[in-house]
Fold this sequence. Notes:
Helix content: 25-40%
Low-confidence stretches: none
Amino acid sequence: MRLALAQINPVVGDLDGNRDCIVGRIEEAKTAGADLVLLPELAITGYPPEDLLLRPGFIRAAERSLAEVARAARGIVALVGTPHFDRDLFNACAVCAAGEVRALYRKRFLPNYGVFDEDRYFAPGHDLFLLEHGGTLIGPTVCEDMWQPGPPATDLALGGAQLLVNLSASPFHVGRDREREEMFATRARDNSCFIAFCNAVGAQDELIFDGHSFVLDEEGHVLARARGFGEELLVVDVEPADAVGRRLRDVRRRALARDRGVLPDLPVVHVGSSRPDPKRPPAHPEPAPLLEELEQMRLALELGLRDYVDKNGFREVVVGVSGGIDSAVTAALAAEALGPERVHCVSMPSRYSAEETRADARKLAENLGTHFLELPIGAVVDAYEATLAEVFSGRESDLTEENLQARARGVLLMALSNKFGWLVVATGNKSELSVGYTTLYGDMAGGFALLKDVFKTDVFRLAKHLNDRAGRELIPESTLQRAPSAELRADQRDEDSLPPYESLDRVLEAYVELDRSHEELTDDGFDADVVDKAIAMIDRAEYKRRQAPPGVKLRPKAFGRDRRTPITNHWRG
């Protein structure tokens, strides 16, 4: 059997565009001689469509789009992810063959944790069936169905499936490709089945879908793997009948069948016969390599920004560059993701900006080949202070005056955005956002926060990786060596207000992402003073995070869809 896995980048709500993309991949798969082509979960609508699924008109339009896709499935079987309404709404896999929808499998397990909210929209399915193609029995599943260690995979295998297929829109975090593949390999071995996993690729708001579609044999070995972070049609020849030998040797299935008392008697839908062309060359592509951590981070950030910009109709972006590490990494990633001709770097020095940082901001833009603009904010800040002088009379200067500078910069960036249509890309990182070391309506201003889920220590690592990969200095070495500073007062350093980032980031990971308590952190040997300060700052800053722009999710738990903490909250743990 020749399989084609269409790893595509659908756009939520673009039913016409998604339909055309799907039909195009079906035609490519037919040209490649494929018997069966898989598309991702909810490929018809894009994933996740969220409350669009509550609109009856949207569901009807999706059904019409699916019918047009099905008409293209002639001479090939296409499995396509779609919403399906039948007295309730289901997340379904449509089996398209001979120009029509021959069957619909309804997703059984609906994830309702982390970034997932499928119980809000869908009813769970319960019925299983097998597809028969050229003597091979195929068990369809959708995403979460295969993350469960038992049914439906075990029931499909006990019912005779030799190949389990999984349509998925599995979100990315760093290392997820390896976790996912390891889990599916376990399912392949436990069920003595070949597995074909077709994932979506692309970005939807905060979520990244990394692709990395693959086909495994019954031993869990990788037969083929698509690249990460890009579209691909993966075509591979498989012999699912080889699973029979393992089933004869591995008696665990018989024990499970005895425990059940009876083998599942599943309905079988005949969808076609294989007619391999003896002249066609075999399709055994070399599996694409899995990527190392920093390269995964780079590609995910660039994909997230590029899709957010392009799918939302922006042509160009603007980044406020200070000569510091965060804005430098943001600008460098933007230039690579979009091309330097679409990126505008704006330096907005104040009386506290050192000549060195001003020079680094200009040098960064030169290294990247972007447009550069310098807009000093001294006169703007003076005007603010003059306006407030009488009201503030008798009070010492404090954080208020520092934040006026940050907000002056936010005003200028948003003015450029309004006038020229540039998307403002905010430059703050996860460490700063965690503890509230950021200014509302100042450096938090923007339409997209690229580094929102990147700890400060990882920002430095990414900067070095970008330079190493380019083989030259994109980010000035002086920026990498300089101690971080907001430059809002004389001789300011981040560590005047925060613990050292190396210590802080470890606490943030444990408290924010792993939900460790104060007691557990101190018992584990974390510095008690760092823990006390960090937790107090994190809990106070929730109101700021609620107002932050969306940004790329890179880690297992990110601010936004992932972490839902009340703003009004007296629990201190």
